[in-house]
């Protein structure tokens, strides 16, 4: 019986040590964020840019979009001249989002993606022109990580070069 109580005591001590080590990884500072009740208060949740230690925020948002702006509905005419241009910003989940655009969007004619190919074909219904301008549909047409300036110069020239002059939409 004494041997069993020693094993139980040893197991409890080992569990305690394991919990202390895990707590050090989860909460390395002197004040553990998980244990602070003040972080759960409504005042802290009201302003997501407020610093936890009440110091002035280093990040101040420049664009305060309203809920209406963020939830607005955009009509996309796949049969017309509408074009989606995907601007990939590095390290923001853009690769995953770009793959989602070509694989999962429910449209009248979704992109055709073949196994083993990096590019998918995103043509308009009944036409041989693309409705999506991204690395997953047109490749690296404007460079590896084209920024807004490069895209505004590059996209019209790439898209217009593939159309006859009379068929080009006015932009």
TrEMBL record:
One function term, GO molecular function aspect: heparan sulfate 6-sulfotransferase activity
Please write the reaction equations for the catalytic activity of this protein: alpha-D-glucosaminyl-[heparan sulfate](n) + 3'-phosphoadenylyl sulfate = 6-sulfo-alpha-D-glucosaminyl-[heparan sulfate](n) + adenosine 3',5'-bisphosphate + H(+)
Q: What is its EC number?
A: 2.8.2.-
Checking Gene3D superfamilies in the record gives:
P-loop containing nucleotide triphosphate hydrolases
The signal sequence is 1-24
Q: Topology with regard to the membrane?
A: Single-pass type II membrane protein
Q: Does the keyword 4Fe-4S apply?
A: no
Look up the domain of life of the source. Answer: Eukaryota
Main localisation, per the record? membrane
Q: Which UniProt keywords apply?
A: Glycoprotein, Membrane, Signal, Signal-anchor, Transferase, Transmembrane, Transmembrane helix
Compartments where located: Membrane
Please give the GO cellular component terms listed in this UniProt entry. membrane
The similarity comment for this entry is:
Belongs to the sulfotransferase 6 family.
Function, as annotated, reads: 6-O-sulfation enzyme which catalyzes the transfer of sulfate from 3'-phosphoadenosine 5'-phosphosulfate (PAPS) to position 6 of the N-sulfoglucosamine residue (GlcNS) of heparan sulfate.
- Can you name this protein? Heparan-sulfate 6-O-sulfotransferase
Q: Which organism is it from?
A: Elachura formosa
Q: What is the lineage of its organism?
A: Eukaryota, Metazoa, Chordata, Craniata, Vertebrata
